[in-house]
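Model: Ready when you are.
Researcher: Fold this.
Model:
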Amino acid sequence: MPYAAGGRATPELLDRLSIERERVEGRIAEPVGTRGRPDSVITGATGNLRTGRPCRAGIS
């Protein structure tokens, strides 16, 4: 990760930090987007277990 060598920030450093933040955000977005899928499956399976009704296909 970029840092302020010598304790001084520059416009270039701020640009590099912004790019790094965007890169990190991109790497975080996919797992966060995927996080709800298991919850959806668990909810459907729990409903099936309790009611005997089939799980609904295509629910995410």
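Researcher: Now this one.
Model:
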Amino acid sequence: MKEIQRPSPFPLRLAEDVKEEAKIEAGKNRRSLNAEIGLLIEEGLKWREAQKRQEAAA
């Protein structure tokens, strides 16, 4: 049987206002704070990549 590998914990320091805003958004989206932060990071990285492609096309 294959063992499921879980990501190791990653300590992250956030400004209190950013953390609070993320908590509010997590509640609205019915996600944990961890899941919300992960999604925000993924979306931010995709947005940056899209911006790079746009700049390269210009």
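Researcher: Key takeaway?
Model: The helical segments are 16-28, 33-57.
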